[in-house]
Predict the 3D structure of the following.
Amino acid sequence: MTVIIGLEIHCQLNTKTKLFCGCSTDYRDDGPNTHVCPVCLGLPGTLPVTNKQAVIYALRVAKALHCEVPAFSEFARKNYFYPDLPKAFQITQYDKPLALGGYIEIEAEGGGEKRIELTRIHMEEDPGRLVHKGSGDRGRYTLVDYNRSGVPLIEIVTEPQLSSPKEARRFLNKLRATLEYLGIYDSEREGSLRVDANISIKGYERVEVKNITSYKGVEKALTFEITRQKGMIRRNAQIVRETRHYQEARGVTTSARSKEMEHDYRYFPEPDLAPLEVSSWVEEIALPELPDARRDRFMQQYGISQNHARTLTGDLKLAEFFEEVTSGMPEIAAPWTADILLGELNYRDMPVTKVPNLHYRALLEEVKKGSVTDTSAVEVLRLILNQVMEGQAPEMPGVIIARLGLSKEEGESFVEVVASVLKENEAAVADHRSGKAGAINFLVGQVMKATRGRADPKEIARIIGDLLKD
Amino acid sequence: MVTKEDVAHIATIADIGVDDSELELFTGQFNAILEYFGVLDSVEGGADAVHSRTNVFREDLVKPSLLNDEVLMNAQDPEDGFIRAPRVI
Protein backbone atom coordinates (compact mmCIF):
# COMPACT_ATOMS: atom_id res chain seq x y z
CA MET A 1 0.00 0.00 0.00
CA THR A 2 1.67 3.19 -1.21
CA VAL A 3 1.36 6.20 1.08
CA ILE A 4 0.92 9.65 -0.46
CA ILE A 5 1.43 12.75 1.67
CA GLY A 6 1.21 16.44 0.83
CA LEU A 7 1.79 19.20 3.36
CA GLU A 8 0.58 22.75 3.90
CA ILE A 9 2.88 24.67 6.19
CA HIS A 10 1.93 27.95 7.82
CA CYS A 11 4.87 30.03 8.94
CA GLN A 12 4.62 33.31 10.86
CA LEU A 13 6.90 35.96 9.43
CA ASN A 14 8.81 37.81 12.14
CA THR A 15 8.00 41.34 11.05
CA LYS A 16 7.71 43.99 13.76
CA THR A 17 4.11 44.76 12.82
CA LYS A 18 1.08 42.92 11.51
CA LEU A 19 0.38 42.34 7.82
CA PHE A 20 -2.14 45.15 7.34
CA CYS A 21 -1.75 47.47 10.34
CA GLY A 22 0.88 48.91 12.65
CA CYS A 23 0.09 46.76 15.70
CA SER A 24 3.18 45.14 17.18
CA THR A 25 3.50 41.38 16.73
CA ASP A 26 5.48 41.06 19.95
CA TYR A 27 2.59 40.26 22.29
CA ARG A 28 4.08 37.20 23.97
CA ASP A 29 4.17 38.55 27.51
CA ASP A 30 1.10 40.76 27.21
CA GLY A 31 -2.54 40.17 28.08
CA PRO A 32 -5.26 39.34 25.54
CA ASN A 33 -6.52 42.06 23.17
CA THR A 34 -3.70 44.50 23.92
CA HIS A 35 -2.14 44.48 20.44
CA VAL A 36 -5.17 45.33 18.37
CA CYS A 37 -6.48 48.38 16.54
CA PRO A 38 -9.52 49.29 14.45
CA VAL A 39 -7.96 47.67 11.34
CA CYS A 40 -7.23 44.22 12.80
CA LEU A 41 -10.49 44.33 14.75
CA GLY A 42 -12.31 44.84 11.47
CA LEU A 43 -14.14 47.94 12.67
CA PRO A 44 -16.23 49.73 10.03
CA GLY A 45 -14.52 52.40 7.95
CA THR A 46 -10.96 51.09 8.32
CA LEU A 47 -8.65 50.18 5.48
CA PRO A 48 -5.76 47.68 5.49
CA VAL A 49 -2.36 48.64 4.00
CA THR A 50 0.17 45.93 3.15
CA ASN A 51 3.38 45.68 5.18
CA LYS A 52 6.24 45.93 2.67
CA GLN A 53 8.66 43.98 4.88
CA ALA A 54 6.28 41.01 4.98
CA VAL A 55 6.26 40.91 1.17
CA ILE A 56 10.07 41.08 1.11
CA TYR A 57 10.32 38.22 3.63
CA ALA A 58 7.88 36.12 1.61
CA LEU A 59 9.85 36.81 -1.56
CA ARG A 60 13.05 35.82 0.22
CA VAL A 61 11.50 32.42 0.95
CA ALA A 62 10.22 32.15 -2.64
CA LYS A 63 13.70 32.82 -4.00
CA ALA A 64 15.42 30.40 -1.61
CA LEU A 65 12.95 27.65 -2.54
CA HIS A 66 13.38 28.25 -6.30
CA CYS A 67 9.82 29.45 -6.91
CA GLU A 68 8.59 31.49 -9.83
CA VAL A 69 7.17 34.89 -8.86
CA PRO A 70 4.41 35.93 -11.27
CA ALA A 71 4.31 39.52 -12.49
CA PHE A 72 0.93 40.08 -10.84
CA SER A 73 -0.53 38.73 -7.61
CA GLU A 74 -3.36 39.86 -5.39
CA PHE A 75 -5.08 39.31 -2.07
CA ALA A 76 -8.51 37.73 -1.81
CA ARG A 77 -11.24 37.47 0.79
CA LYS A 78 -12.00 34.03 2.15
CA ASN A 79 -15.41 34.33 3.75
CA TYR A 80 -16.30 32.27 6.76
CA PHE A 81 -18.23 32.73 9.96
CA TYR A 82 -16.09 31.95 12.95
CA PRO A 83 -15.09 34.30 15.77
CA ASP A 84 -11.33 33.87 15.22
CA LEU A 85 -11.62 36.58 12.55
CA PRO A 86 -13.64 39.65 13.43
CA LYS A 87 -14.28 40.71 9.83
CA ALA A 88 -16.07 37.44 8.91
CA PHE A 89 -13.40 36.91 6.27
CA GLN A 90 -9.68 36.22 6.16
CA ILE A 91 -7.45 38.17 3.81
CA THR A 92 -5.44 35.56 1.95
CA GLN A 93 -4.43 34.84 -1.63
CA TYR A 94 -6.45 32.58 -3.89
CA ASP A 95 -5.97 32.22 -7.64
CA LYS A 96 -3.11 34.73 -7.92
CA PRO A 97 -0.59 33.76 -5.22
CA LEU A 98 2.75 35.45 -4.65
CA ALA A 99 4.83 32.48 -5.81
CA LEU A 100 4.40 29.27 -7.81
CA GLY A 101 6.38 26.04 -8.06
CA GLY A 102 9.77 25.62 -6.44
CA TYR A 103 11.27 22.67 -4.58
CA ILE A 104 13.21 21.47 -1.56
CA GLU A 105 15.81 18.72 -1.64
CA ILE A 106 15.89 16.29 1.23
CA GLU A 107 18.02 13.30 2.12
CA ALA A 108 16.52 10.30 0.32
CA GLU A 109 15.95 6.89 1.85
CA GLY A 110 19.20 5.01 1.19
CA GLY A 111 21.35 8.05 0.41
CA GLY A 112 21.30 10.71 -2.28
CA GLU A 113 18.86 13.57 -2.58
CA LYS A 114 15.13 13.53 -3.27
CA ARG A 115 13.44 16.61 -4.69
CA ILE A 116 10.06 17.53 -3.23
CA GLU A 117 8.21 19.97 -5.46
CA LEU A 118 6.12 22.84 -4.17
CA THR A 119 2.77 23.90 -5.58
CA ARG A 120 2.78 27.49 -4.37
CA ILE A 121 3.51 29.97 -1.60
CA HIS A 122 0.92 32.55 -0.67
CA MET A 123 0.56 35.25 1.96
CA GLU A 124 -2.28 35.61 4.43
CA GLU A 125 -3.20 36.95 7.85
CA ASP A 126 -3.22 34.76 10.95
CA PRO A 127 -6.58 34.45 12.71
CA GLY A 128 -7.09 35.23 16.39
CA ARG A 129 -6.76 32.78 19.23
CA LEU A 130 -9.79 31.05 20.72
CA VAL A 131 -9.95 29.59 24.21
CA HIS A 132 -12.82 27.20 24.77
CA LYS A 133 -14.22 27.31 28.29
CA GLY A 134 -16.89 25.76 30.43
CA SER A 135 -18.43 22.33 30.28
CA GLY A 136 -21.73 20.73 29.43
CA ASP A 137 -23.94 21.84 26.59
CA ARG A 138 -25.22 25.07 28.09
CA GLY A 139 -22.20 26.20 30.10
CA ARG A 140 -19.71 26.23 27.27
CA TYR A 141 -18.46 29.47 25.77
CA THR A 142 -15.48 30.78 23.85
CA LEU A 143 -12.98 33.50 24.74
CA VAL A 144 -11.39 35.47 21.91
CA ASP A 145 -7.98 37.14 21.82
CA TYR A 146 -7.21 39.12 18.66
CA ASN A 147 -3.53 39.80 19.41
CA ARG A 148 -2.53 37.20 16.82
CA SER A 149 -5.17 38.33 14.35
CA GLY A 150 -3.39 39.91 11.38
CA VAL A 151 0.11 38.53 12.01
CA PRO A 152 1.65 37.82 8.58
CA LEU A 153 1.83 34.20 7.48
CA ILE A 154 3.10 32.43 4.46
CA GLU A 155 1.48 29.17 3.49
CA ILE A 156 3.77 26.77 1.67
CA VAL A 157 1.96 23.99 -0.19
CA THR A 158 3.80 20.89 -1.39
CA GLU A 159 2.89 18.51 -4.18
CA PRO A 160 1.76 15.10 -2.86
CA GLN A 161 5.26 13.65 -3.16
CA LEU A 162 6.16 12.57 0.36
CA SER A 163 5.93 8.83 0.91
CA SER A 164 6.31 8.32 4.66
CA PRO A 165 6.00 10.14 7.98
CA LYS A 166 9.79 9.95 8.30
CA GLU A 167 10.21 11.67 4.94
CA ALA A 168 7.69 14.31 6.00
CA ARG A 169 9.75 14.94 9.14
CA ARG A 170 12.93 15.27 7.06
CA PHE A 171 11.17 17.68 4.75
CA LEU A 172 9.96 19.81 7.64
CA ASN A 173 13.36 19.81 9.32
CA LYS A 174 14.93 21.02 6.10
CA LEU A 175 12.23 23.62 5.55
CA ARG A 176 12.42 24.85 9.14
CA ALA A 177 16.21 25.16 8.94
CA THR A 178 15.95 27.07 5.66
CA LEU A 179 13.36 29.48 7.06
CA GLU A 180 15.56 30.02 10.10
CA TYR A 181 18.66 30.68 7.97
CA LEU A 182 16.62 33.20 5.98
CA GLY A 183 15.99 35.11 9.20
CA ILE A 184 12.29 35.48 8.49
CA TYR A 185 10.87 33.40 11.31
CA ASP A 186 11.34 32.87 15.02
CA SER A 187 11.59 29.17 15.81
CA GLU A 188 11.30 29.75 19.54
CA ARG A 189 7.90 31.36 19.23
CA GLU A 190 5.11 28.95 20.02
CA GLY A 191 2.96 28.10 17.02
CA SER A 192 5.23 29.90 14.55
CA LEU A 193 5.20 26.83 12.30
CA ARG A 194 1.94 24.91 11.89
CA VAL A 195 1.19 22.04 9.58
CA ASP A 196 -1.85 20.56 7.83
CA ALA A 197 -1.40 17.29 5.95
CA ASN A 198 -3.22 15.54 3.12
CA ILE A 199 -2.83 11.80 3.46
CA SER A 200 -4.03 8.97 1.28
CA ILE A 201 -3.28 5.38 0.40
CA LYS A 202 -2.87 5.07 -3.37
CA GLY A 203 -6.21 4.24 -4.98
CA TYR A 204 -8.30 5.54 -2.06
CA GLU A 205 -9.81 8.86 -0.94
CA ARG A 206 -7.60 11.43 0.72
CA VAL A 207 -8.03 12.81 4.21
CA GLU A 208 -6.95 16.21 5.44
CA VAL A 209 -5.51 16.35 8.95
CA LYS A 210 -5.59 19.78 10.53
CA ASN A 211 -4.51 21.23 13.82
CA ILE A 212 -0.97 19.85 13.99
CA THR A 213 0.28 22.71 16.10
CA SER A 214 3.85 21.62 16.63
CA TYR A 215 6.05 20.47 13.82
CA LYS A 216 7.26 17.72 16.13
CA GLY A 217 3.70 16.34 16.22
CA VAL A 218 3.66 15.76 12.46
CA GLU A 219 5.34 12.38 12.37
CA LYS A 220 3.05 11.05 15.12
CA ALA A 221 -0.09 12.46 13.52
CA LEU A 222 0.80 11.03 10.11
CA THR A 223 1.72 7.63 11.51
CA PHE A 224 -1.59 7.42 13.36
CA GLU A 225 -3.61 8.45 10.32
CA ILE A 226 -1.84 6.02 7.96
CA THR A 227 -2.37 3.15 10.39
CA ARG A 228 -6.04 4.09 10.66
CA GLN A 229 -6.51 4.18 6.88
CA LYS A 230 -4.67 0.90 6.31
CA GLY A 231 -6.78 -0.72 9.02
CA MET A 232 -9.95 0.44 7.28
CA ILE A 233 -8.80 -0.95 3.95
CA ARG A 234 -8.02 -4.31 5.57
CA ARG A 235 -11.48 -4.40 7.08
CA ASN A 236 -12.98 -3.44 3.71
CA ALA A 237 -14.40 -0.27 5.27
CA GLN A 238 -14.72 2.80 3.09
CA ILE A 239 -12.35 5.71 3.60
CA VAL A 240 -14.36 8.90 3.17
CA ARG A 241 -12.92 12.16 1.97
CA GLU A 242 -13.01 14.32 5.10
CA THR A 243 -11.19 16.71 7.38
CA ARG A 244 -9.88 15.30 10.64
CA HIS A 245 -8.41 17.09 13.63
CA TYR A 246 -5.23 15.95 15.30
CA GLN A 247 -5.60 15.69 19.07
CA GLU A 248 -2.06 16.30 20.25
CA ALA A 249 -2.58 15.12 23.83
CA ARG A 250 -4.00 11.75 22.77
CA GLY A 251 -1.98 11.34 19.57
CA VAL A 252 -5.07 10.51 17.50
CA THR A 253 -7.05 12.13 14.69
CA THR A 254 -10.80 12.58 15.01
CA SER A 255 -13.38 13.41 12.39
CA ALA A 256 -14.34 17.08 12.20
CA ARG A 257 -18.05 17.66 12.26
CA SER A 258 -19.46 17.98 8.77
CA LYS A 259 -20.54 21.59 9.35
CA GLU A 260 -16.96 22.71 9.88
CA MET A 261 -16.19 21.16 6.53
CA GLU A 262 -18.67 23.25 4.68
CA HIS A 263 -16.24 24.78 2.20
CA ASP A 264 -18.14 27.65 0.81
CA TYR A 265 -15.63 30.42 1.12
CA ARG A 266 -16.91 32.55 -1.79
CA TYR A 267 -13.45 33.92 -2.54
CA PHE A 268 -13.21 37.22 -4.37
CA PRO A 269 -10.38 39.75 -4.92
CA GLU A 270 -9.86 42.00 -1.87
CA PRO A 271 -11.13 45.40 -3.05
CA ASP A 272 -9.44 47.29 -0.18
CA LEU A 273 -5.89 46.31 -1.13
CA ALA A 274 -3.84 47.18 -4.16
CA PRO A 275 -2.54 44.14 -6.06
CA LEU A 276 1.19 43.32 -6.04
CA GLU A 277 3.59 43.69 -8.92
CA VAL A 278 6.79 42.62 -7.22
CA SER A 279 8.44 40.04 -9.48
CA SER A 280 11.21 42.51 -10.29
CA TRP A 281 12.16 42.71 -6.61
CA VAL A 282 13.35 39.12 -6.57
CA GLU A 283 16.60 39.90 -8.34
CA GLU A 284 17.62 42.41 -5.67
CA ILE A 285 16.97 40.06 -2.78
CA ALA A 286 20.24 38.73 -1.38
CA LEU A 287 20.17 35.25 0.13
CA PRO A 288 22.39 34.19 3.04
CA GLU A 289 24.32 30.91 3.02
CA LEU A 290 21.63 28.20 3.20
CA PRO A 291 21.80 24.79 4.94
CA ASP A 292 23.06 22.75 1.96
CA ALA A 293 25.81 25.23 1.16
CA ARG A 294 26.84 25.38 4.79
CA ARG A 295 26.87 21.58 5.04
CA ASP A 296 29.20 21.35 2.04
CA ARG A 297 31.42 24.08 3.44
CA PHE A 298 31.63 22.33 6.83
CA MET A 299 32.76 19.11 5.13
CA GLN A 300 35.38 20.95 3.12
CA GLN A 301 36.59 23.48 5.68
CA TYR A 302 36.60 21.25 8.77
CA GLY A 303 37.07 17.85 7.15
CA ILE A 304 34.12 16.36 9.02
CA SER A 305 31.76 13.59 7.84
CA GLN A 306 28.67 14.30 5.78
CA ASN A 307 26.43 13.00 8.57
CA HIS A 308 28.00 15.28 11.16
CA ALA A 309 27.92 18.22 8.75
CA ARG A 310 24.26 17.59 7.99
CA THR A 311 23.32 17.38 11.66
CA LEU A 312 25.33 20.45 12.63
CA THR A 313 23.89 22.60 9.84
CA GLY A 314 20.31 21.35 10.34
CA ASP A 315 19.76 24.13 12.85
CA LEU A 316 21.10 27.65 12.42
CA LYS A 317 21.92 28.21 16.10
CA LEU A 318 23.67 24.85 16.32
CA ALA A 319 25.73 25.61 13.21
CA GLU A 320 26.75 28.99 14.64
CA PHE A 321 27.61 27.42 17.99
CA PHE A 322 29.76 24.77 16.32
CA GLU A 323 31.70 27.40 14.39
CA GLU A 324 32.36 29.30 17.60
CA VAL A 325 33.81 26.34 19.49
CA THR A 326 35.47 24.21 16.84
CA SER A 327 38.62 26.18 16.08
CA GLY A 328 41.65 23.93 15.87
CA MET A 329 39.84 20.71 16.82
CA PRO A 330 36.91 19.94 14.49
CA GLU A 331 37.70 16.22 14.73
CA ILE A 332 36.68 16.41 18.41
CA ALA A 333 34.11 19.21 18.25
CA ALA A 334 32.05 17.61 15.45
CA PRO A 335 31.29 14.23 17.08
CA TRP A 336 30.99 15.79 20.53
CA THR A 337 28.53 18.42 19.38
CA ALA A 338 26.50 16.33 16.91
CA ASP A 339 26.39 13.08 18.87
CA ILE A 340 26.79 13.90 22.57
CA LEU A 341 25.84 17.53 23.21
CA LEU A 342 22.74 17.38 21.00
CA GLY A 343 21.49 14.28 22.83
CA GLU A 344 22.02 15.94 26.22
CA LEU A 345 20.20 19.08 25.01
CA ASN A 346 17.25 17.11 23.63
CA TYR A 347 17.02 15.21 26.90
CA ARG A 348 16.78 18.49 28.81
CA ASP A 349 14.72 20.30 26.15
CA MET A 350 17.40 22.96 26.33
CA PRO A 351 18.27 25.29 23.43
CA VAL A 352 21.88 25.28 22.23
CA THR A 353 21.99 29.05 22.75
CA LYS A 354 22.06 28.39 26.50
CA VAL A 355 25.26 26.32 26.37
CA PRO A 356 28.19 28.42 27.67
CA ASN A 357 30.71 28.49 24.80
CA LEU A 358 33.70 29.10 27.01
CA HIS A 359 32.99 26.12 29.27
CA TYR A 360 32.15 23.80 26.41
CA ARG A 361 35.27 24.77 24.50
CA ALA A 362 37.40 24.22 27.65
CA LEU A 363 35.85 20.77 28.05
CA LEU A 364 36.72 19.86 24.45
CA GLU A 365 40.28 20.95 25.18
CA GLU A 366 40.43 18.61 28.18
CA VAL A 367 39.19 15.80 25.92
CA LYS A 368 41.77 16.67 23.32
CA LYS A 369 44.58 16.70 25.90
CA GLY A 370 43.39 13.33 27.10
CA SER A 371 43.18 14.53 30.69
CA VAL A 372 39.72 12.96 31.13
CA THR A 373 38.08 9.90 29.64
CA ASP A 374 35.06 10.37 27.39
CA THR A 375 32.85 8.97 30.14
CA SER A 376 34.11 11.51 32.66
CA ALA A 377 33.84 14.32 30.12
CA VAL A 378 30.16 13.47 29.57
CA GLU A 379 29.69 13.61 33.35
CA VAL A 380 31.30 17.08 33.42
CA LEU A 381 29.13 18.23 30.51
CA ARG A 382 25.97 17.05 32.25
CA LEU A 383 26.95 18.91 35.39
CA ILE A 384 27.57 22.13 33.49
CA LEU A 385 24.25 21.85 31.62
CA ASN A 386 22.39 21.11 34.84
CA GLN A 387 24.00 24.10 36.52
CA VAL A 388 22.86 26.34 33.66
CA MET A 389 19.36 24.87 33.74
CA GLU A 390 19.15 25.54 37.47
CA GLY A 391 20.18 29.14 36.92
CA GLN A 392 23.60 28.80 38.56
CA ALA A 393 26.84 30.12 37.14
CA PRO A 394 28.45 27.02 35.64
CA GLU A 395 31.84 25.85 36.93
CA MET A 396 34.77 25.54 34.55
CA PRO A 397 35.51 21.92 33.52
CA GLY A 398 38.98 22.03 35.13
CA VAL A 399 37.40 22.94 38.47
CA ILE A 400 34.83 20.15 38.22
CA ILE A 401 37.47 17.60 37.21
CA ALA A 402 39.61 18.51 40.22
CA ARG A 403 36.68 18.66 42.64
CA LEU A 404 35.31 15.26 41.65
CA GLY A 405 38.71 13.66 41.12
CA LEU A 406 37.82 12.78 37.52
CA SER A 407 41.29 13.31 36.17
CA LYS A 408 42.29 10.33 34.07
CA GLU A 409 44.86 8.31 35.95
CA GLU A 410 47.56 6.13 34.57
CA GLY A 411 46.40 2.63 33.82
CA GLU A 412 48.77 0.94 36.27
CA SER A 413 47.14 2.48 39.32
CA PHE A 414 43.99 0.51 38.48
CA VAL A 415 45.68 -2.88 38.60
CA GLU A 416 44.35 -3.49 42.11
CA VAL A 417 40.83 -2.51 41.15
CA VAL A 418 41.01 -4.78 38.13
CA ALA A 419 42.27 -7.63 40.24
CA SER A 420 39.44 -7.32 42.73
CA VAL A 421 36.84 -7.06 39.94
CA LEU A 422 38.23 -10.26 38.40
CA LYS A 423 37.99 -11.98 41.77
CA GLU A 424 34.38 -10.92 42.23
CA ASN A 425 33.34 -12.00 38.75
CA GLU A 426 34.68 -15.51 38.38
CA ALA A 427 31.87 -16.56 36.07
CA ALA A 428 32.68 -13.80 33.59
CA VAL A 429 36.37 -14.64 33.83
CA ALA A 430 35.54 -18.26 33.02
CA ASP A 431 33.40 -17.11 30.09
CA HIS A 432 36.29 -15.04 28.83
CA ARG A 433 38.69 -17.93 29.13
CA SER A 434 36.28 -20.16 27.20
CA GLY A 435 36.34 -17.59 24.41
CA LYS A 436 32.99 -15.86 24.94
CA ALA A 437 33.33 -12.54 23.17
CA GLY A 438 31.15 -10.32 25.38
CA ALA A 439 32.79 -11.26 28.67
CA ILE A 440 35.71 -8.83 28.37
CA ASN A 441 33.33 -5.93 27.79
CA PHE A 442 31.40 -6.86 30.90
CA LEU A 443 34.59 -6.92 32.96
CA VAL A 444 35.77 -3.59 31.55
CA GLY A 445 32.35 -2.18 32.39
CA GLN A 446 32.66 -3.37 35.99
CA VAL A 447 36.06 -1.69 36.33
CA MET A 448 34.72 1.53 34.78
CA LYS A 449 31.89 1.44 37.31
CA ALA A 450 34.29 0.86 40.19
CA THR A 451 36.50 3.76 39.07
CA ARG A 452 33.53 5.98 38.22
CA GLY A 453 34.68 6.30 34.65
CA ARG A 454 38.10 7.71 35.38
CA ALA A 455 39.89 4.81 33.72
CA ASP A 456 40.58 4.54 30.01
CA PRO A 457 38.59 1.49 28.82
CA LYS A 458 41.25 0.47 26.29
CA GLU A 459 43.91 0.53 28.96
CA ILE A 460 41.72 -1.51 31.32
CA ALA A 461 41.09 -4.11 28.63
CA ARG A 462 44.86 -4.39 28.21
CA ILE A 463 45.42 -4.84 31.98
CA ILE A 464 42.67 -7.49 32.16
CA GLY A 465 44.32 -9.29 29.27
CA ASP A 466 47.70 -9.17 31.06
CA LEU A 467 46.34 -10.40 34.39
CA LEU A 468 44.47 -13.28 32.80
CA LYS A 469 47.49 -14.35 30.77
CA ASP A 470 48.70 -17.53 32.36
CA MET B 1 -30.34 37.09 -8.77
CA VAL B 2 -30.16 35.80 -5.20
CA THR B 3 -32.65 33.01 -4.55
CA LYS B 4 -34.30 31.93 -1.32
CA GLU B 5 -32.15 28.81 -1.46
CA ASP B 6 -28.96 30.95 -1.53
CA VAL B 7 -30.07 32.84 1.56
CA ALA B 8 -31.02 29.65 3.39
CA HIS B 9 -27.61 28.12 2.55
CA ILE B 10 -25.65 31.11 3.84
CA ALA B 11 -27.79 31.16 6.98
CA THR B 12 -26.90 27.52 7.62
CA ILE B 13 -23.16 28.17 7.27
CA ALA B 14 -23.38 31.20 9.54
CA ASP B 15 -25.43 29.21 12.07
CA ILE B 16 -28.24 31.78 11.99
CA GLY B 17 -31.82 30.64 12.31
CA VAL B 18 -34.01 32.18 9.62
CA ASP B 19 -37.71 31.40 9.29
CA ASP B 20 -39.77 31.40 6.08
CA SER B 21 -41.07 34.96 6.35
CA GLU B 22 -37.55 36.28 7.05
CA LEU B 23 -36.24 34.27 4.13
CA GLU B 24 -38.61 36.15 1.87
CA LEU B 25 -37.61 39.50 3.43
CA PHE B 26 -33.83 38.92 3.27
CA THR B 27 -33.94 37.60 -0.27
CA GLY B 28 -35.67 40.80 -1.33
CA GLN B 29 -33.11 42.91 0.55
CA PHE B 30 -30.16 41.03 -0.94
CA ASN B 31 -31.50 41.61 -4.43
CA ALA B 32 -32.11 45.29 -3.73
CA ILE B 33 -28.46 45.66 -2.68
CA LEU B 34 -27.30 43.86 -5.79
CA GLU B 35 -29.25 46.34 -7.89
CA TYR B 36 -27.00 49.10 -6.56
CA PHE B 37 -24.07 47.20 -8.04
CA GLY B 38 -25.90 47.11 -11.30
CA VAL B 39 -25.85 50.91 -11.21
CA LEU B 40 -22.13 50.93 -10.42
CA ASP B 41 -21.48 48.55 -13.30
CA SER B 42 -23.06 51.03 -15.69
CA VAL B 43 -20.43 53.66 -14.79
CA GLU B 44 -17.74 53.97 -17.44
CA GLY B 45 -14.59 52.14 -16.31
CA GLY B 46 -16.71 50.36 -13.71
CA ALA B 47 -15.17 48.50 -10.80
CA ASP B 48 -11.84 48.16 -12.63
CA ALA B 49 -10.93 51.61 -11.38
CA VAL B 50 -10.12 50.03 -8.01
CA HIS B 51 -7.21 48.11 -9.50
CA SER B 52 -5.64 50.99 -11.33
CA ARG B 53 -3.02 51.20 -8.58
CA THR B 54 -0.63 48.46 -7.54
CA ASN B 55 2.13 48.21 -4.90
CA VAL B 56 0.68 50.36 -2.17
CA PHE B 57 2.69 49.63 0.96
CA ARG B 58 3.50 50.86 4.42
CA GLU B 59 6.82 50.47 6.25
CA ASP B 60 7.16 47.96 9.08
CA LEU B 61 6.83 50.54 11.85
CA VAL B 62 4.96 49.94 15.09
CA LYS B 63 2.03 52.22 15.86
CA PRO B 64 0.26 52.32 19.20
CA SER B 65 -2.56 49.82 19.62
CA LEU B 66 -5.82 50.48 21.44
CA LEU B 67 -6.03 50.12 25.20
CA ASN B 68 -7.69 46.91 26.32
CA ASP B 69 -10.51 48.95 27.91
CA GLU B 70 -11.17 50.63 24.58
CA VAL B 71 -11.16 47.29 22.76
CA LEU B 72 -13.73 45.85 25.13
CA MET B 73 -15.93 48.95 25.21
CA ASN B 74 -18.52 47.42 22.89
CA ALA B 75 -18.03 43.82 23.93
CA GLN B 76 -20.76 42.14 25.92
CA ASP B 77 -19.62 40.45 29.11
CA PRO B 78 -15.83 40.38 28.54
CA GLU B 79 -13.71 38.10 30.73
CA ASP B 80 -10.11 38.75 31.84
CA GLY B 81 -9.40 40.95 28.83
CA PHE B 82 -10.93 38.45 26.39
CA ILE B 83 -14.00 39.03 24.26
CA ARG B 84 -16.60 36.45 25.14
CA ALA B 85 -18.40 34.62 22.34
CA PRO B 86 -21.04 31.90 22.31
CA ARG B 87 -19.59 28.42 22.17
CA VAL B 88 -18.28 27.48 18.75
CA ILE B 89 -17.37 23.85 19.29
Q: What stands out?
A: Residues 97 and 122 of chain A are 5 Å apart (CA to CA). Chain A touches chain B through 50 residues (CB under 8 Å).
